[in-house]
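Collaborator request, handled under Task 6.
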Amino acid sequence: MMSSSPLPFQRLVRDSFGQLVLTDGAGQVFDGVTPVRAHPISAPDEGISLVGPDGHELAWVERLSGLPTPERELLESEFAAREFVPTVLKLKAVSTFSTPSQWTVDTDRGESQFILKTEEDIRRLGDGRLLIGSSHGIHYLVPDRFALDRASKKLLERFL
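Structure tokens returned to the collaborator:
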């Protein structure tokens, strides 16, 4: 690397079209860069790959929090625009205790309804965390199923 910067690249900016542009250590410029988290749910701060439009990795970021503020904020804003995983705060209703069933939940983004096709669409992530996949491909995160209110836990336990 030509730079003594702690960055795994020389420069990362957004162009006038809103796309990320990376300049690598050799000064080569790559347009249309996409950041990809290695572990988006279990370790979102660790292991970020910056991938070119051809799908090849251009740079590897060990820790998002280790980047200087401008680059970190740029990547965080890119992730926020692409990632949509509402956090379930409360289960309000379930249409039936067999699947498929319609769920009504309160999330950090407001009330939502979705169809749970099968019990297999509820993934256990460890430490009480769950990832619930809807029939439309939206994933809902339950950060700690043990911390939910009593009524929510009772509804959820029928499917676990």
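The cover message to the collaborator said: "The helical segments are 69-82, 150-157. DSSP finds two helices and eleven strands in the chain. Please let us know whether this matches your experimental observations."
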